[in-house]
Write a structure and sequence with these properties.
By secondary structure, the chain is of the alpha/beta class. Helix content is about 30%, strand content about 25%. The protein is built from 19 helices and 31 strands. Helix 7 crosses helix 8 and helix 10 crosses helix 11. The longest helix has 17 residues. The structure holds 5'-O-[(S)-ethoxy(hydroxy)phosphoryl]adenosine (WTA). The site of 5'-O-[(S)-ethoxy(hydroxy)phosphoryl]adenosine has 24 residues, from helix 11, strand 25 and strand 26.
Length: about 625
């Protein structure tokens, strides 16, 4: 891309996308369509919804009779799987490659849309035979293998909702999510491969099931072949069931209401328990497919690789649902980016001719550390567009990605969004002049504000709270079984205005470009993964030696943020190196390796408000040697 001179007072240079990209872009103009999409919100979304196949057309595009519980496309009948698979079978796409999957050891499996349909249908029939009902929630705890996608699609096909728990989570995290969803069926695998080692998923699942009385059936995919404990009457092997001669490979896709639940996905929040964010068949289909098509400029011949894990929202929306709805060829990779060597990704891009790569700043920084020689060994000329998500991308990483990976010809789509938003909210289009580190402008139909506590727009360049001012089809509908919490967390602060509070801070520059700064609540983004301080603290105090704990995020070169913890031991226990190691291991065991604290400090007391809330901001300021700010609410 050509660098043009920066306008006065702009804190960053502009990168203009190449003409060849602009000429072919799916969306060629931003301003007018943006204005139209907000002034004629319902028309705009109805036009987008018309790209999908509906069993029955909606009556109302947006039902805003009971905010913040907005409904979209009410009266409409649809199933996301009908759009992601079934409708392609009637066209030449039937024989198009839907998934290319590569395992970490190097094994490869590919599925055409036709083959994917057979696998999904077979497994859907098995789930039915296990008594899975429309509306029930099936928990899925798997590594990144094709059966994970097949399981999600099979649930959706028969109208069951899925709750995918990221395979990097551990016993307590899994047990808690199963309990909240009340799942009767758990789908898992014996393990997966990560850095050359087999993970012990089934062992963790077994331990979690001991804490989960609701589970009646557990189906396990054999991936690694390691020895695992299977309980008779409860445990079944996936391959045994799928190869039963009576398993039918035809299955009708269930007709769903647009507002029927498609999935819940647990995400970390400010307080204790993770929140089950609810998404639905209709609005989510429309929103994810539209954002994917417009932002990543999907063409029939593209090979799309979203290098996230399907266990997080990025994988749900942009590995599974949106790309399949758009009939794309999707790359999926099981393992670590640097295994066996740091060229693994670059090798796969060359091998499969990947044209669009979408990943996180942490992954980019991690690979950048190995130097340019690794990517330079490979022909990366198939790449046309790049993407980034999960945390702010620092300009150094942005430039490396742009120059060394994209060879200065691939615009970078820095997409800001959240589990709760379903899809991209603030993002460039391929035609947008870019500034490294800025997510640029709102997507169509999205009205954004950066405001103070009273709701006034802050001045240009000043930091404020990021809010969304109007509803969009991909928005979360509620928190599962807890609508009050949904209001409390997202809508209470700007109740009068009816705005959604994102939980991030941001600033808008003189060109109207939006810069995301980071979380302002007690959510920590570690390597782009979302964790709650409360979850980490509760894992720490579940250790018998610990009385109280606090967790904070401090900047980390590679991970963006790292978790630092402060603990008070129980009377008679003294903190030492052995206990520190034990506590780190304990958190890993309960929550997962991603939650492993960087440091554990033993302290005598924690700064608290008079009402007993830990003042993490004070801990953070002290750790960084910064001003501690207003301490008037601090308890003696
Ligand atoms: C952060 C991930 C800066 C942000 C899709 C948000 C980002 C949280 C970006 C949601 C970005 C996501 N630039 N920050 N491009 N994308 N974030 O729910 O703090 O796992 O609130 O969804 O990630 O994390 P979640």
């Amino acid at each position: 891309m050509k660098k043009t001179s920066a306008p006065a007072n702009s804190n960053s240079e502009f990168y203009k996308p190449p003409k060849s990209i602009i000429r072919r872009a799916n969306v060629k103009e931003y301003e007018n369509l943006y204005t139209y999409s907000n002034e004629h919100r319902e028309d705009f979304w109805a036009e987008q919804a018309n790209n999908l196949k509906w069993f029955k057309k909606w009556k109302t595009v947006l039902d805003n009779s009971n905010p913040p519980f907005y409904k979209w496309f009410t009266g409409g009948k649809i199933n996301i799987v009908y759009n992601a698979i079934d409708r392609h079978l009637k066209t030449w796409r039937r024989n198009k490659v839907a998934f290319i999957w590569e395992g970490e050891p190097g094994d490869v499996r590919t599925f055409s849309y036709h083959a994917l349909n057979r696998e999904v249908s077979k497994f859907a029939n098995i789930l039915k035979s296990m008594g899975v009902q429309k509306g029930e929630i099936v928990t899925i705890y798997m590594p990144q293998i094709p059966e994970l996608a097949i399981s999600m699609l099979a649930c959706a096909k028969i109208g069951a909702a899925h709750s995918v728990v990221y395979g990097g989570f551990s016993v307590e995290a899994l047990a808690e999510r199963i309990a909240d969803a009340g799942s009767r069926v758990l789908l898992t695998a014996d393990g997966g491969y990560r850095r050359g080692k087999a993970t012990n998923l089934k062992e963790i699942a077994n331990e979690a099931m001991k804490r989960s009385p609701t589970i009646e059936v557990c189906i396990t995919v054999k991936r690694t072949g390691q020895d695992v404990y299977m309980e008779s009457d409860r445990d079944f092997w996936y391959h045994d069931l799928i190869s039963l001669p009576i398993t039918n490979n035809k299955c009708e896709t269930e007709v769903m209401d647009a507002e029927d639940m498609l999935f819940i996905l647990y995400t970390s929040g400010t307080t204790g328990r993770p929140k089950g964010v609810v998404h639905t068949h209709g609005g989510y289909s429309v929103y994810t497919a539209t954002t994917h098509r417009m932002v990543f400029d999907i063409k029939e011949e593209d090979r799309w690789w979203c290098a996230a894990d399907p266990g997080w929202i990025t994988g749900h929306s942009y590995i599974i649902y949106a790309p399949l709805i758009n009939g794309a060829t999707v790359m999926m990779y099981e393992g670590a980016p640097n295994h066996p060597y740091p060229n693994r990704w670059w090798h796969m891009i060359e091998k499969y001719g990947i044209s669009i790569l979408y990943t996180s700043p942490t992954a980019i920084r991690g690979l950048m550390r190995f130097g340019d020689a690794w990517p330079n060994r490979h022909d990366l000329s198939s790449l046309r567009l790049l993407g980034s998500v999960g945390e702010p991308i620092n300009p150094e990483a942005w430039r490396w990605y742009h120059e060394v990976i994209g060879k200065r010809k691939c615009p970078i789509m820095d997409t800001w969004w959240q589990t709760e938003t379903g899809g991209f909210m603030i993002t460039p289009l391929p035609i947008t002049p870019l500034k490294p580190g800025s997510a640029t402008k709102p997507f169509f139909g999205i009205e954004v504000g950066v405001v103070d506590d009273a709701g006034n727009e802050v001045k240009t360049g000043e930091e404020g709270k990021l809010v969304i001012k109007s509803p969009w089809p991909g928005m979360a509908r509620t928190i599962y079984k807890d609508p009050d919490r949904y209001i409390e967390v997202y809508w209470k602060d700007y109740e009068k205005m009816g705005w959604y509070k994102a939980g991030d801070s941001a600033r808008i520059d003189e060109d109207g470009y939006i810069w995301i700064i980071g979380r302002i609540d007690d959510v920590i983004k570690v390597s782009g993964y979302r964790l709650g301080t409360a979850e980490i603290e509760s894992a720490l105090v579940s250790h018998p030696d610990i009385a109280e704990a606090a967790a904070i995020a401090l900047p980390h070169d590679l991970k963006g943020n790292a978790i630092h913890t402060f603990v008070i031991t129980r009377a008679g226990v003294s903190g030492d190196k052995t206990l520190e190691q034990e506590l780190k291991k304990h958190v890993s065991h309960e929550l997962g390796p991603i939650a492993r604290p960087e440091s554990v400090a033993f302290v005598e007391s924690l700064p608290k408000t008079r009402s007993g809330k830990i003042m993490r901001r004070v801990l953070r300021a002290r750790a960084l040697g910064e001003d501690e700010g207003d301490l008037t609410t601090l308890e003696e």
